[in-house]
Amino acid sequence: MRSLMSYYFTEMYGAEQKQYLDANNYNNTKRNHATIVKLIATLKRATTTTDYTYINYYRKTYGEIPLWVLANVLTFGNLSKMFRVFPQSLKSKVSKNFEPLNQHQMEQFLSVLTKYRNVCAYGERLFTYRTVDAIADTPLHKKLSLPQSGNQYEKGKQDLFAVVIAFRYLLPGKDFLEFKRKLIKEIDRVNREVEHISEVELLNKMGFSENWKSITKYHLK
After folding, report:
1. Taking the complete model, does pTM exceed 0.85, yes or no?
2. Which of 36, 72, 100, 159 has a 20 to 30 A CA-CA distance from 52?
3. pLDDT exceeds 90 at position 195
């Protein structure tokens, strides 16, 4: 994600530092303006950090930091915010690398993932956490026969299983299989060590269906 965003931005606007610090190179609408101002302030601070050798090298040698270098020090939240205010053409180019996702779905995935990342970073309770926003409905919701209330899916939207669904679309196949293997192992560990909650109850609190392991059996389209 970092490399794709920096590549397409640089392709469109050039590699000079001033380009990613220019509000006009983002979707600078009235709605986005405050977000862009904060983003640019974050990017400016990142260019002056002395915590990373490669940042210091580029600043000393070339007098500026190209985005493809700076992207390595940005947090996932920074990248999510940057994607949100990208011009539509850039959003589309990035999203095409994760087909069948469109740019709107990508934006929703990144927003929900950012919130879950923050929960982990601050040591809050993860397994019962729910976001206010939700990921879009995907073919996997239907193929896994996730429960619905009317036209709304009750699982895999704002819960921890939404993160798993997002990873299924965003991670390379081998990486997702490794993630799934480790997740199964961790769930098994919790089931052994925590006696007052059954596996079915644990899965339900996380928003998982009992057939969630079948997520790798289905095509993403």
Report:
1. yes
2. 36
3. no
